Amino acid sequence: MSELSSLFCKVKITKSQLDFFLNSAPEKPTLNDNWQKWWDSREMDSKMDLTPEYLHAYNENTNQEVLDGWMEYKQAMAFSDYDEAKEEWQWGMLFFSENYVEMLPMFAFIVSMEKYVSESTENSAIVYPYFWGDSNVDAYIYFENGKAVLSPQVKSTSDVNAVIMESTIVCLDQKWEDLSKNMEMD
Q1: CB-based burial label for 170 (10 Å; 0-12, 13-18, 19+)
Q2: 144 φ, ψ to 5°?
Q3: Which pTM value belongs to this model?
Q4: Helices 15-23 & 63-72, crossing angle to 10 degrees?
Q5: What are the mean pLDDT values of the chain's consecutive 10-residue runs (186 residues total)?
């Protein structure tokens, strides 16, 4: 990776569960078989072993503070939209990261949502180079049977369910259009 990848997450979650999640402290992830298989499936330069020191949560007091930090970081072009009628939360960043180690706390943040989301085949998060025309997927997380799963199999956008991928692109296209209107050009 050499360019910043984008992050898009869409989950079904009730407003009260979203509030519980956002008011909770970031959870320390546990290095388990899923994390290890996902890490082993990724290609990266100078790859090191995934250790508990690398796999950590954000240091903020609440998940809301994590989200606020990204929202306030203008260069990320972050967004967060909750639809009460659909009980659906869509959020992400157009410019997230290019470094797997830097991404790990966000993946822990997403995985920790597993006990708050409502069951839906649409619940997922994807990190990929949306702007750069590359089909590589840095990470794909889906939720199934009350668990978040980092998919070691999804390595390309073609490995993602076509409907989910299309809705991801539509949302990111719209967010780029909306957020770039107020962007200052040098």
Answers
A1: exposed
A2: -150, 130
A3: 0.94
A4: 90
A5: 88 98 97 96 90 94 98 95 97 95 97 97 96 92 96 96 94 92 66
- 127: three-class secondary structure by DSSP: strand
Residue 84's identity, in one-letter code, is: E
Residues in Cβ contact with 44 at an 8 Å cutoff, skipping those fewer than 6 apart: 1, 100
- Are the C-beta atoms of 156 and 135 separated by less than 8 Å? yes
Task: Please give the structure tokens belonging to residue 20.
Answer: 């519980």
- Looking up tokens 């639809």 gives 83
Whole-angstrom Cα distance, residue 152 to residue 68?
29
Instruction: Go through the chain and tell me how many residues it has.
Output: 186
* Cα–Cα distance for residue pair 76/186, rounded to 1 Å: 17
d(CA 88, CA 117): 9
Is 66:60 a contact under the CB 8 Å cutoff?
Answer: yes
| C-alpha to C-alpha distance for 78 and 31, rounded to whole angstroms | 28
